[in-house]
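dude i think i finally got it to work??
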Amino acid sequence: MELELFEANNGECPYLDNRQWRSYTFRAGSLENSVYEALISYGFRRSGCFFYKNNCPDCLECVSIRLKVNDVILSKSQRRAWNKNQDISLTWHPVKFDQESFELYKKYSVEKHGAVTSEKNYKDFLVHSAVDTIMMRYYLDQRLIGVGWVDVLVNSLSSVYFAYDLDFHKRRLGIFSFLKELELAKQLKKKFLHLGFWVRDCKAMSYKQQFRPYELLIDGIWVNHPNDMN
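look at this
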């Protein structure tokens, strides 16, 4: 398979101030799960049907991070988040558009990021997918309070995005969603859970280091970082 890469200038960096975001990118309406899984180990990520690898000038701060599903040791705070949310029910199914999930995402985008989104942008980002993707829907007393999008690959799951109702922020739903993704990965007998990029100096990304031990993609090699490393 031949993939034609293009260089893209994406404007300001979404993670760090005073930086420019540039990437190599290609579009694919459909891509074999095994191919994308291999591309992740070359530093690629997916947004809708676009695949990209960061190529920012004088910056290597975005580092791919993953967990070995069967090696993760939960901290006390993670166990508390798990126990606190046992009244939440969960369903999952292949990705599709539904108004309820869109309204939750739209509310989250405004309240969390101050960004107004459209139905088209939502579909392009989270509904249209070139690989096998599921939606994990979190309910409290029949009220939808969270939705996670996850790619189901050959040997791994890849976490795409999670949106939740900020009225329930004290429940630490972001942490709980990763725990449920870990649980699903075990059920599906996957080896890894990919968490996307970790950025050392971006506070909003620091939560990904809370799951240990983890692996970072350094110079094309997955390097293990044990519990005592930052």
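Residues 6-61 form one domain.
im so relieved honestly
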